[in-house]
Write a structure and sequence with these properties.
Layout lengths: L4 E7 L6 H15 L5 E7 L6 H7 L3 E4 L5 H10 L5 E4 L10 H10 L3 E5 L2 E3 L4 H17 L6 E4 H6 L11 H14 L4 E4 L5 E3 L2 H6 L4 H12 L6 H8 L4
Parallel strand pairs: 1-2, 1-4, 2-3, 5-8, 6-9
Antiparallel strand pairs: 4-7, 5-7
């Protein structure tokens, strides 16, 4: 049986949080059908902890990706995927039990090129609420989201996957490219709000609950082609784990 889904998890030193994601994926796989219908791939992006061993012990296919770029890790996992649909989720997240059921439903309905499930956060504070209120209007206006991001594997190949020249913002650029492809066929991006993932707040834990506001400037700079800075490295590529 060829898998319907290939779920790719880019991971760097995720031994602490990866098990809870895999627990949630086991539930979501069982809700969708036989385990063979969902292929789990962990793209190990140079971990120095037990990430690879944990993933292997839990039945995941582990793909080493030496290039320390998040986009490269995503592409490395997708490069070995055999499912009709490729999906991506961060290693510190947890997925909804109906993730694959709902994604399959929207893709089977026609007129959809891909999309994302959206997220709920694992904790709240005043700073996080204000951050959320800033982001949500942009998400609604652009009809783009985060969480479990998905598309057909053939479309992933068609748009060239994730842009490995981008250290950050590769996820936004990917969805924009997917949207452009969809428009040529009369298809659109969707937000699968019935199956929101649970997103980690560890960046808020590390950098403070109000840190996102100055970060917006950094993110926009990257999307416009800006060069990496020390903060880029510290925030995305040299985490405290």
């Amino acid at each position: 049986m060829s898998p319907r889904f290939s779920l790719i998890v880019p991971a760097y030193n995720e031994a602490l949080l990866l098990p809870r994601l895999l627990d949630s994926l086991e539930v979501a796989r069982a809700a969708f059908g036989p385990p063979e219908a969902v292929e789990l791939i962990v793209a190990d992006n140079g971990s120095t902890d037990e990430t690879a061993a944990i993933a292997t012990a839990r039945g995941c296919r582990v793909v080493p990706v030496a290039k320390r770029v998040i986009a490269a890790a995503r592409n490395g996992g997708a490069g070995v995927a055999t499912g009709e649909v490729v999906a991506f989720v961060d290693a510190d997240s947890r997925v909804h039990p109906r993730t694959f059921v709902e994604i399959d439903r929207v893709l089977s309905g026609g007129g959809v090129v891909g999309g994302a499930t959206g997220v709920r956060l694992e904790r709240w504070s005043l700073g996080i609420v204000c951050t959320w209120m800033l982001i949500v209007p942009l998400v609604v206006a652009m009809r783009m989201d985060t969480g479990v991001v998905f598309c057909r594997r053939e479309d992933f190949v068609s748009i060239g996957g994730y842009d490995e020249r981008r250290l950050v913002g590769e996820d936004v650029a990917f969805l924009l490219a997917l949207r452009r492809l969809g428009r040529t066929r009369g298809e659109h991006l969707v937000r699968v709000r019935r199956a929101k993932a649970i997103a980690s707040t560890r960046k808020f834990d590390e950098f403070g609950d109000w840190h996102y506001f100055p970060l917006i400037v950094e993110g926009l700079r990257h999307l416009l082609g800006g060069k990496p800075t020390e903060f880029t490295d510290r925030y995305w590529y040299k985490p405290k784990r």
